[in-house]
Amino acid sequence: MSDYLDMDVPAPEPALAVASEDPEVEARRRRFTELLDVFRETPVLVPLGDGPGPDGERGLRTADWNGVRFILAFSDGQALARYARARGEFHREWVYQTILGARLLDVAVPAAGVPCGVALDCADGPDGVVFPPVLGVVPDEVAVDREQGDGL
Q1: Which end of the chain has less Cβ packing within 10 Å, N or C?
Q2: Longest C-alpha distance within the chain, in Å?
Q3: How far apart are CA 41 and CA 46, in angstroms?
Q4: Mind giving me the DSSP string for 112-149?
């Protein structure tokens, strides 16, 4: 055993470093980063919630999942209509604001006061996208992984 310890063998790389060298992982990371860049530059439809917010105004519609709040955003009116239909609320009027993706991530997410991200086109199954509250997506001070430094 001591011969093994004396051998000049490089230490194994951490699992994260090995995973990041995987071509498929890198390709997915690049695609997500490209999608994030496009989202940041794109105005999206954000429905307003039913009740008044803390300032008496209607807040943005959100959904909580596993302790994280997600602001619901839609790429166009058809995506919002699919969401309304999936909820069985197609018949009612949906009030929404058009907000730039960057403003959602940089202003609305930190204002939530809880871990928060954005769910884009959430009624579209695998075509929907989740922008989680992690480094590289939301401001560092509200990223849930800021102490780990594991962003994109």
Answers
A1: N
A2: 76
A3: 15
A4: TSSSEEEEESTTSGGG-EEE-SSBTTB-GGG-TTTTTT
Burial (Cβ within 10 Å: 0-12, 13-18, ≥19) of residue 110:
middle
Token pair 């011969």 is at which residue? 3
Query: How much is the average pLDDT of 109-128?
Result: 95
Type of residue found at 7: M
Task: Write out the DSSP string of 3-58.
Answer: HHHHS--PPPPPHHHHHHT-HHHHHHHHHHHHHHHHHHHSEEEEEEEEEE-TTSSE
| Dihedrals phi, psi of 21, to nearest 5 degrees | -90, -10
Q: Which residue has the tokens 């949906």?
A: 94
pLDDT reading at 125 higher than 70: yes
Provide the pairing of β-strand 116-120 with 68-73.
parallel
Q: What pTM was estimated for this model as a whole?
A: 0.78
Contact assessment for residue 121 and residue 74, using Cβ atoms and an 8 Å cutoff? yes
